[in-house]
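Hi Y.,

Following your request, here is the sequence exactly as I used it, all 260 residues.
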Amino acid sequence: MAIPRPLSGGRLAALLIGVPVALALIGWGALNIVALAAASSISVNRSVAATGTTVSVDIAGGDLQLSPSPDRLVHVKGVVDYKLLRPAVSVSSSASGTSIGLSCQPIVVDQCWANLDIEVPAREAANASVVSGSISASDLDNLSLSSVSGSLLVSQASGVVDLSTTSGQITALAMGPAYVTVNAVSGSVSLAFAQAPARVSVQVTSGSVVVAVPTQGQTYAVEARSTSGGTSIGVPTDPTSSHVISISTTSGSISVEPGG
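Below is the corresponding structure, written out as tokens. Let me know if you'd prefer a different format.
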């Protein structure tokens, strides 16, 4: 009868580390299989009176569509897909404004995803933020939109517009006389104005920038800097103009061209 050899220090360490890791991976895989089998969705249809001056939306994962409300109510409609654990959707108003949130349980990969249409009353500012997902907004004034990973699309907005993304494309169409600030780490930026903007400020780390503005009887004070990429200025310029366009990118081309 063979006598088992004693475990060496290396083999013992491998067992002590490897076995728990293997069991954890098996458990994680099993949990996600259960989550897939338990996948479901909930419908959202909520309306609250707008209080304060701001509508704020903050969710981890999902796509948001913002548009004007036909009345003084904030309307939230859509679907939330989830796995295993039902998320909580909150829509509330206070003296400071209206807040919309989505609480997902972070124990399962891709556990929760929302697709929401949100109607914002006139004269209310809209602040929307997602970690992963896209945001679109149309016919609203005074916007602040941000996504860590996802695209931003804005159309026919005026007032103060602040757009930022870590990774994703930023597009603005038929914009009014707005003050626009754009910050992007990785992604292209395309801004088109139907009316001359008061001020445009764009900072991009990696990506091209195109800004199209009306030129009939209009001049712009333009400052464009690209560390690595070409620069094209095709609009009438005047350093004393009250319409200011400032663009900088580390890697990518810059174009300021006629449009509108």
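Residues 21-37 have pLDDT under 50 and may be disordered.

Thanks again,
Q.
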